[in-house]
Amino acid sequence: MNKEEFAKLNVFGLGDPNDFYAEYFIGNSYLNPLAKTANGISFANVTFEPSCRNNWHIHHAKSGGGQVLICTAGYGYYMEEGKKVQKLSPGDIVVIPANVKHWHGARKDSWFSHIAVEIPGEETLNEWLEPVSDDEYENLELK
User: Fold this and answer.
1) What is the per-residue burial (b if ≥16 Cβ within 10 Å, else e) of 34-70?
2) Could you tell me the pTM of the whole model?
3) Domain of 78?
4) How many domains does the chain have?
5) Which of 26, 33, 65, 115 could cross-link with 98 by S-S, CB 3.0 to 4.6 Å?
6) How far is CA 49 from CA 23, 100, 128, 142, in A?
7) 65-112 pLDDT per residue, tens
8) Which CATH number does the domain housing residue 35 bear?
9) Average pLDDT, rounded, for the chain
């Protein structure tokens, strides 16, 4: 999906370059904060250019915590350590428990957006880990 087609479908908007977290992404991503509730649940639209993905990471929490991804436009991937990659399409929802190593991003031929919902918890911490290598990413279809 090219950028023009994607822009028509990305109802939550591209947002600004994700400069604050750029060191944890391969490729360019964009962040559009949407809302934050009084009890600390935050919603942000994250957009990935084709082949962009974030590093492996873990949303740590003593209790509660984790993340939910609501796929809104384009096509992407989600992968937990030790499991097969999941292809993501608009309307897909991924519930990521706390303390699970994972990554997510766009397919190589498509822009991709999801709303990231951060779940509040006790003693939460996001730990950024190693990048998803080009070799690992390029061979996803083989799994």
Assistant:
1) eeeeeeeeebbbbbbbbbbbbbbbbbbbeeebbbbbb
2) 0.93
3) 3-101+114-142
4) 1
5) 65
6) 15, 25, 20, 22
7) 999 999 999 999 999 999 999 999 999 999 999 999 999 999 999 999
8) 2.60.120.10
9) 94
